[in-house]
């Protein structure tokens, strides 16, 4: 199997985490290809970025509203995308232990939109910023939304850090937000403002979910409607069969109809039983996490949680 087939299979069968990383890397590559091509023309290479980056001016944003989405998937600096994708992979993996891929995508989008909205609001309303025009690019706000949501859901889950050893997620999130807050007046003030917007989004999501409210439902309903619409449009319609052919199929298949239906019903019942068992197992483990935290799970329970959550998704 070639590398193209391997990447294609990971996209088709991988989780939303894998797909988000793929999209970010694809944007990174396309931006550099576009700027490389523009260097051989009279157009400045930076021109390509202005169609992707989010402007701080609402008046300019109205002329290119798509940038509220495109900016959160694009990075231009190598270290920028490397750092963001590592954070997304590390915290996204923990996020998916007890949450779904659909919610991850919605939270990623929510974090990016709220981070971008706060960026524009501050540059428009705060006197220290509204005299300048700035541009925002990068998935940091979206990634930090997932980071803070994961930290709120699993505050005592520990990860090993170089030079520091095991550190609880809550401290990583608190330190990250503090760094962004005290860096607002720096050279990348707009970026840190967006980070804070993304962080607050993640906290709101996790707190609401703990109280039984899923704020990603509207997005997921819209996404499901759109996917179903595309499937109906793109799926080929079955050709109409003549009455003679239909009668022939009915007569030839009628004798074996009962035999064919029995295995199917048994398979359906078996699948339903498996799904009920998986849901019961997941509920039992999630109850234990709520009472004692993720760190209280045994190794076997963590493995079961991972396996069951993958099957349910």
From TrEMBL:
Tell me the InterPro entries matching this sequence: DUF6576, Peptidase_S54_rhomboid_dom, Rhomboid-like_sf, Rhomboid_protease_S54
Q: Name one GO biological process term.
A: proteolysis
Biased composition (Basic and acidic residues) is annotated at 256-280
What ranges does the record give for the region Disordered, renumbered to this chain?
238-280
Q: Where is this gene product found?
A: Membrane
Q: Where are the transmembrane segments?
A: 21-41, 78-98, 105-126, 132-152, 159-184, 190-209
Recorded GO cellular component terms are: membrane
Locate the compositionally biased regions of type Polar residues: 240-255
Q: What is its main location?
A: membrane
Keywords for this protein: Hydrolase, Membrane, Protease, Transmembrane, Transmembrane helix
Keyword Transmembrane helix attached: yes
- Pfam families per record: DUF6576, Rhomboid
Q: What membrane topology is annotated for this entry?
A: Multi-pass membrane protein
Give start and end of each Peptidase S54 rhomboid domain: 64-209
Residues forming the DUF6576 domain are: 278-310
User: For this protein, what is any one GO molecular function term?
Assistant: serine-type endopeptidase activity
| Superkingdom | Bacteria
Q: Does the keyword Cell wall biogenesis/degradation apply?
A: no
- Which family does the similarity line name? Belongs to the peptidase S54 family.
Q: Can you say what this protein is called? A: Rhomboid family intramembrane serine protease
What is the organism field in this record? Muribaculum gordoncarteri
């Amino acid at each position: 199997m070639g590398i193209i087939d391997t990447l294609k299979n990971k996209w088709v069968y991988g989780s939303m985490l894998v797909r988000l990383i793929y999209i970010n890397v694809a944007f990174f590559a396309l931006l550099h290809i576009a700027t490389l091509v523009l260097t051989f023309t009279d157009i400045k290479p930076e021109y390509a970025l202005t169609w992707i980056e989010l402007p701080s001016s609402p008046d300019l944003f109205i002329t290119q509203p798509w940038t509220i989405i495109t900016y959160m998937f694009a990075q231009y600096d190598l270290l920028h995308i490397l750092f963001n994708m590592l954070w997304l992979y590390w915290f996204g993996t923990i996020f998916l232990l007890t949450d779904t891929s659909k919610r991850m995508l919605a939270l990623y989008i929510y974090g990016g939109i709220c981070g971008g909205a706060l960026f524009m609001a501050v540059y428009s309303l705060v006197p220290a910023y509204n005299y300048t025009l700035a541009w925002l690019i990068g998935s940091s706000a979206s990634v930090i939304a997932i980071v803070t949501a994961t930290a709120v859901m699993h505050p005592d889950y520990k990860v090993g850090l170089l030079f520091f050893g095991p550190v609880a997620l809550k401290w990583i999130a608190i330190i990250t937000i503090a760094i962004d807050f005290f860096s607002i007046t720096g050279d990348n003030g707009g970026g840190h403002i967006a980070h804070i917007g993304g962080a607050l989004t993640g906290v709101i999501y996790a707190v609401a979910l703990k109280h039984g409210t899923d704020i990603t439902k509207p997005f997921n309903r819209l996404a499901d409607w759109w996917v179903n619409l595309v499937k109906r449009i793109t799926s080929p319609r079955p050709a109409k069969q003549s009455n003679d052919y239909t009668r022939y199929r009915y007569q030839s298949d009628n004798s074996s109809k009962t035999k064919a239906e029995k295995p199917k019903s048994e398979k359906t019942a078996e699948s339903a039983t498996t799904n009920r068992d998986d849901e019961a197992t997941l509920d039992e483990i999630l109850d234990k996490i709520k009472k004692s935290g993720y760190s209280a799970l045994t190794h076997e329970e963590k493995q079961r949680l991972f396996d069951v959550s993958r099957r349910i998704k």
